[in-house]
Amino acid sequence: MTIASLRRSPQYLPRPLTKRAYVLPVRRTLATVSPEHAKVTVGIRREDPSRIWERRCPVTPDEVAQLVQHLDVDVLIQDCDRRVFPIDQFIKAGAKLHPTLEPAHIVVGIKETPLNELVTSPVSAPGLRSGPSIPRTHLMFSHTTKGQPYNMELLSRFLGSQENPSLPRLIDYELLVGEDGKRTVGFGWFAGVAGVLESLSALAHVHLELGVASPFLHTPRPHTHPSVPSLRSALRTIGQNIVENGTPKALGPFVIGLTGSGKVTQGCLSILDELPIVNVAVKDLPGLVSNPGTDLHKIYLVHALPKDYLTRADGGQYSRDDYYKSPVMYHSDFDTKVAPYLTLLLNGVGWLPSFPRLMTNEQLVTALTRAAEVGRARFGTIGDISCDVEGGLEFLPRASTLSDPFFKHRPSSLPSHLPSVTIMSVDILPSSLPLDASQHFCGVLMPYLRALIDEYRGQPGSREHLEALNVATVARNGELQGKHRGLAAPVERWQASRAAEIASKAGVAETSLMKKRVLMLGSGMVAGPAVQEICKRSDVEIIVAGNVRSETEALTRKYSNAKAAYLDVHDVAEMARLIRNADVVISLLPVPFHPAVAELCIQHRKHLVTASYISPAMRALHERAQSADVLLLNEIGLDPGIDHCSALSLLAQLKRDKKRVISFTSFCGGLPAPDCADVPLGYKFSWSPRGVLNAALNGARFKLNGKEMEVSGENLLQEYFPDIPISNVLKLEGLANRDSLPYAETYGLGKLENLQTVLRGTLRYPGFSDLMHAFKVIGLLDTETSIQLRDWRDLARMSLEKRIGEQIGSDRRSFLSALSTVMAIERAESALSALDWLGLTPENVPCSTPSAISLKPLAPIELFTSVLAHKLRYNPGERDMVVLSHEVVARPSLSSIDSATEVHTSRLVAYGNSEASAMARCVGLPVAFAALEVLYGGVQMRGVHGPTDKSLYGAVLDGLQAAGLEMKESVSKGPGMERVLAEGLKARRVAL
Questions:
Q1: Torsion on CA atoms 143, 149, 151, 156, rounded to nearest 10
Q2: What is the percent of the chain with per-residue pLDDT over 90, rounded to a whole number?
Q3: 363 pLDDT higher than 60
Q4: Alpha helix positions (H), 481-571
Q5: Tens-place pLDDT, residues 506-555
Q6: In sequence order, what are the residues at sequence separation of 6 or more whose Cβ sits closer than 8 angstroms to the Cβ of residue 877?
Q7: Phi, psi of 297 (to 5 degrees)
Q8: CA dihedral sign of residues 890, 892, 896, 902
Q9: In this model, does residue 902 exceed pLDDT 80?
Q10: What are 385-389's contacts with CB under 8 Å, separation 24+?
């Protein structure tokens, strides 16, 4: 779209002025509304009296007349002599004065309502002479949706301690969007128009200080004209003067720089079109400014886009998709490529902390130094229309006001020989165009207002607008709605702060009445980091419940907001009591207990978080949990957990990059660090030993190199992958992990038949699978039989007796002979050596083994778990290691010149430290981050789920990154690891 056509685009032009018939003065009367009033009533608020420049109005007199005369709506309005439309015009149109708007069903304003004027009581239902009251609706720019602390008290007025149908509905204009996801109700275009005029006025003042009168000395300030067309006319006159007489030679060519591409920038372009504009490219700036023959009867405009001034840190070119994927890889050269050549900078681009600034404080020094070399009056004036304090322009220290729109500023880092900069940074620019802005705003608001009126009447309204209004609803019936449930945290922080302030004034200690409560069931190996992370939140209290008092007390004693509780998991009444008093429950209990805990959570309507796989029993609770509005969140530890979160994040990026996945391979393992791994199995336990042994009994399904494969639980430890090529340093083997095939759907990889590989596996050091299989053959992993043990040295012999059904002599030779009947002699000797080390063989010298032996018969796996937990524990000073690796082979979705396959890897290698093991951190921290996200209302899923929602896995990954557990990603060309895996598995099967 050209600038000329943009200027005339209906989307950005205000509605034309209409001749008004309201010529006779009207006596002001206050409305008295009958209790039997039966119409839908709309109330128009006055704006906060302290905002002296706020003259806008959300509904015009013309539309009031439409509402009253054609829609049979009552309109009430608060008196205000500052409003752009005189009150008499509203009364003439059919509105009635009312001091509080208390009878209104729908209350509309522009900015947030002052707290002392906010009406939250219910109102009589329309259409009924008598009957139940209903909640009213408030529409405003509430400035609450980002958790702004200064407005949490306002938001709290719409919330109750529980669902309350009488509390009002809050709709925020900023959240109203169309089908394209773009905002539909706002003032950005008018900010651009007003920003240009205020900036040109400031520029003229700067030039006057230099002793030069520029044509822009006559630039009208926006509020001094009644309308945009009038301002256009005045600026057009200045433009004609420039065409005829030129700009001062002493100042050289007038070059205006503009950034951004949104509605603010479009407003800038529209009003600048009244000047004799010549568009120039960034690359042409040096020649333009240095050329003495440059035509001074023109104004030169350079619309600098990111591709013009952003470059990759490695020297690569700008790519929009790559930029939003990896903003930290880019830096801005605006200070050298654009700024030194400008007469005026108009900044219309926003900024986020993870992105490069347009200019830093250091770059301002560079820009001013070069500007002084280029010529007089270069880069001395800036109009920051975005008004992002210390944002894209780091040196912007504050917003300015319409009463004092520009100021001089020198950052402390600016050398004394360089000049100050003059900055215009008014933060309420549209308020200076109240007539046009109000007419435009009213025009885009009315379809939504009509839909609300229909809704109050119980009539079918515009579905499109009603759906948009629902999305834009921040609070309703006393509860935060949709994605805004995450605002519970800042509201509660404000409440806690307020309670502490009141308590302090009353001379009493702060209480924990306002705190959220997390219940943690279990106090095992991974609990510590989770407790520590949750206790960082002063507004949260955690109760750690377990049957080992020393463990729960050790976990909680150093935190003021943590308590220990004794719990026997078979005491259902006590568990129910603890769950009833919690807001979120974390279960670190063994997997078989999770369904029973989930049942109680559903009964008491409490959310549950676990790190375990979703069992069939848990999955069966999905519909009941949904009906109870409860989330049963599973699979949010390490594997499963971080593996899901990181895989979904990587795959989402590939989808945005329009890449098609061919293969997905993921391996994860918790291992001893290499210097601590010289033990049988090459393994030590940093989490549940029973969980490790159970995993060795599970069957697996996967697709590898184009073939679907299934490995039974009986054969899992034999059909392993002898080489997992993910490290040039570590030699690792792998076991297929359960059923990988459903992850084609879970991860959105595409149809299974179109994929070469879908495989998830577990990492171990070489030798683990063979030795663990030997233990299995001996019977040490049996779950169905039981033995009455008297001496730990009899465990292996008695387990083998159960397997072969024969008595074995209690001497070493007899045991070895029996071993050789179930495995090759060399395997038998290797197994015997490991069992010797574990202290489980006949005639073994007594060594360190678990002291107590159960007096009742137990399954061999139970007894073996006790031995492994004791013998293969980490000693003081030893550390563990977690390795997680995803490999995704992909190619462009559409054929291209370069359609070679790419191998995308995402890897995490973490080591334990003196505070916690790597496993404890990698399981406990995701659990904590997820529980907190659920606690603060940031997760809207209900039912039984894993961490598949972006709001959840994104929050978990952000938390892990802050904790130093970030996934490292890389890309290479060529094939993936599937060929190596397939050949290794084939060799194992041939050997069998």
A1: 120
A2: 55
A3: yes
A4: 488-506, 527-534, 549-556
A5: 554 444 446 889 999 998 878 999 999 999 888 889 999 998 888 899 89
A6: none
A7: -95, 15
A8: negative
A9: yes
A10: 385/191, 385/192, 385/195, 385/199, 385/264, 385/268, 385/346, 385/347, 385/348, 385/429, 386/260, 386/264, 386/347, 386/348, 386/349, 386/350, 386/351, 387/425, 387/426, 387/427, 388/350, 388/351, 389/425
Rounded CA separation 186/171 (Å): 14
CA angle 126, 129, 130 (to 5 degrees): 95
- Identify which of 672, 619, 665 has the alpha carbon closest to the alpha carbon of residue 643: 665
Mean pLDDT, rounded, for 189-200? 96
Q: Which residue in 474, 476, 479, 475 sits closest to 161, CA to CA?
A: 479
Residue 173 pLDDT class (50, 70, 90 cuts):
very high
The alpha carbons of the chain give a radius of gyration, in whole angstroms, of 35
The DSSP secondary structure of 796-830, one letter per residue, reads: HHHHHHHHHTS---SSHHHHHHHHTTTS-HHHHHH
pLDDT tens readout for residues 424-451: 999 889 999 999 999 999 999 999 999 9
Burial class of residue 381, CB neighbours in 10 A (0-12, 13-18, 19+): buried
* CA dihedral of residues 535, 540, 541, 545 (deg, nearest 10): -80
Structure tokens at 311: 């470059």
Please tell me the distance from the alpha carbon of residue 729 to that of residue 738, in angstroms, as a whole number: 27
In single-letter form, the type of residue at position 567 comes to L
Place of tokens 């994927």: 325
- CB-based contact 988:920 (threshold 8 Å): no
Q: Are 174 and 263 in contact, with CB atoms under 8 Å apart?
A: no
What dihedral do alpha carbons 650, 656, 658, 662 form, nearest 10°? 20
Secondary structure (3-state) at 887: strand
DSSP per-residue letters across 716-740: TTTS-BS---S-SS---EEEE-SB-
> Which of helix, strand or coil describes residue 642?
helix
Dihedrals phi, psi of 855, to nearest 5 degrees? -80, -10
Q: Is 296 helix (H, G, I), strand (E, B) or coil?
A: coil
d(C-alpha 737, C-alpha 174), whole Å: 47
Give pLDDT tens digits for 38-85. 699 999 999 988 888 999 999 999 999 999 999 999 999 999 999 999
214-240 pLDDT, tens per residue? 999 999 999 999 999 999 999 999 999
The pLDDT, as a whole number, for residue 17 is 31
Q: What is the pLDDT of residue 146?
A: 77
Environment class of 2 (CB within 10 Å of its CB; exposed 0-12, middle 13-18, buried 19+):
exposed
Residue closest to 664 by CA, chosen among 650, 676, 679: 650
What one-character DSSP code corresponds to residue 836? H
| DSSP annotation string for 71-82 | S--EEEE---SS
Q: How far apart are alpha carbons 360 and 335 in whole angstroms?
A: 9
Give the pLDDT of residue 353. Answer: 65
In 104-146, which ranges are E strands?
Answer: 106-108, 123-124, 133-134, 137-140
CB 949 within 8 Å of CB 628: no
Which residues contact residue 115 at a Cβ distance below 8 angstroms, ignoring those fewer than 6 apart? 153, 154, 157
Structure tokens at 981: 């895996």
CB 823 within 8 A of CB 774: yes
CB 385 within 8 A of CB 192: yes
Query: DSSP letters of 920-944?
Result: HHHHHHHHHHHHHHHHTT-----EE
What distances in angstroms separate CA 289 from CA 253, 303, 364, 573, one per listed residue?
6, 16, 20, 82
**Which are the contacts of 974, defined by CB distance < 8 A and separation ≥ 6?**
900, 901, 903
- Which residues are within 8 A (CB) of 692 and not within 5 positions of it... i.e. 6 or more apart? 683, 685, 868
Name, in order, each residue with C-beta under 8 angstroms of 254's C-beta and a sequence gap of 6 or more.
247, 296, 298, 299, 300, 343, 344
Which pair of tokens denotes residue 49? 């009296």
Comparing C-alpha atoms, which of 504, 328, 453, 404 is closest to residue 43?
A: 453
